[in-house]
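Weekly puzzle thread! Below is a chain. First person to post its structure in token form gets bragging rights.
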Amino acid sequence: MIPIAIYHWNIGIVSRGKGKSAVAAAAYRSGEKLTNEWDGMTHDYTRKGGVVHTEIMLPSHAPPSFSDRSTLWNSVELYEKAGNAQLAREIDAALPIELSREEQIRLVREYCSSQFVSRGMCVDYAIHDTDSGNPHCHIMLTMRPLDERGTWAAKSKKEYDLDENGERIRLPSGRYKTHKVDLTGWNDKDNTLLWRKAWADFTNDFLERNGSPERIDHRSNAERGIDELPTVHMGVAACQMEKKGIATEKGELNRNIQKANRLIREIRAQIGKLKEWIADLFKAWETAPEQPPQSPNLANLLMKYLSVQREKSRKYSQRWQHQHAADELKTIAAAVNYLSEHGISNLDELDASLSSVSDKAYSIREGMKTAEQRMKELQKLMEYGRNYQTYKPIQDEYRQIRWKGKQEKFAEARRAELTLWDAANRYLHANLPKGTKTLPIAEWEQEYADLKTQRDSDYTKLKDTRAEVAELQKIRKCVDIALRADQPEQTQNRAKRHEQER
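Winning reply:
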């Protein structure tokens, strides 16, 4: 079996509409001090540790001045005028610890050259490693193409919609119906899958060339047949707080998901082993020379186990025998009680009970998936809802200013708050029912709290299921010992009967 290394590859957009800045993102990833000429804000990350390599890669027709990080991203910021402009595409990916630093750099460089620079994008990447076992790279990509002269060109163009006669379609407003045509192909949704797969292919090629047996797989858990709860993306702010020892809602969510996944893996593995064991017993029972009329009675086998253990203990002191006998009686009493409570008397019924336990675990897991997905949605609604309420007074003040020069000055001074309000306004408008006038933040918080309670209850149920499977493992151990003890007796009995028949 090929060992699977850690695969992490995530893609996102640096959007002004979400209060982000390409210059700020570049400064953080490179560990540099950069000033955004669009809003005048300086972002100083020179004290940030763990930045081990940075590099800018340009297509042949890009201006040489773009080799300077500040020049490149300020050019992007100043060219984009819209308050909701998409400034950059960003990718972060885990780097294999099996590769040396030089090989990690070569991997990122070859990947970026093949997938992005060759298609006309400017690339700014950084490799981070704090020696905590999590080396990773941040890749920033320009989203607007450059023409042959090295100046920014259009991302898309509008085309008129035509009717069956090839005529333009007039709207009630008097305008003509149009649609947007992407001029680069970079925003095609299929690219995400292609770039994810390419990262896996490049990484696996480097691992193979370096003699490492590990491989990574770009497919999702569901595509690989792994039934686990997905963790949520933390984001820079939450990660920084967690590093400082400050627990975040996202961090808590992920820790609980990871605990649940570990439990699910344990339960699935243990049930699988028990199922294999029962299948082997059935096979041995069915192929036995003198097949019994029904599968072995488990209570009888447990009593047989007790007598075997009692016989083994005779060579020890009386005191040890008494203590050992008491411990064994407790084990058998617990096993017999479990079998009695669940109506299990033989292997057929034990097999059916295992299937029931397995179904119960999967049912709990599916419920947790639904709850975690809703919690993820609620986190976004609460975050944007709070931002909307917090910055709405500033937005109202801005709109009440009548003098244009004063309004522009106000917007310049409060740009960050206005941008956050605008992002919240657009997200809530897109995700809430039309006509919503009051944000139900208290209701969202209560629903989130209820789901947390449900999640804790489901986790307790999973722990109970694991304890149930552990009890079945104890029964298996006792039954195995009893069956092995039975085999010599059965062989002797068959020999005696054969002698009498002769």
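Puzzle host: Confirmed. Bonus trivia for everyone else. The CA atoms of residues 294 and 447 lie 52 Å apart.
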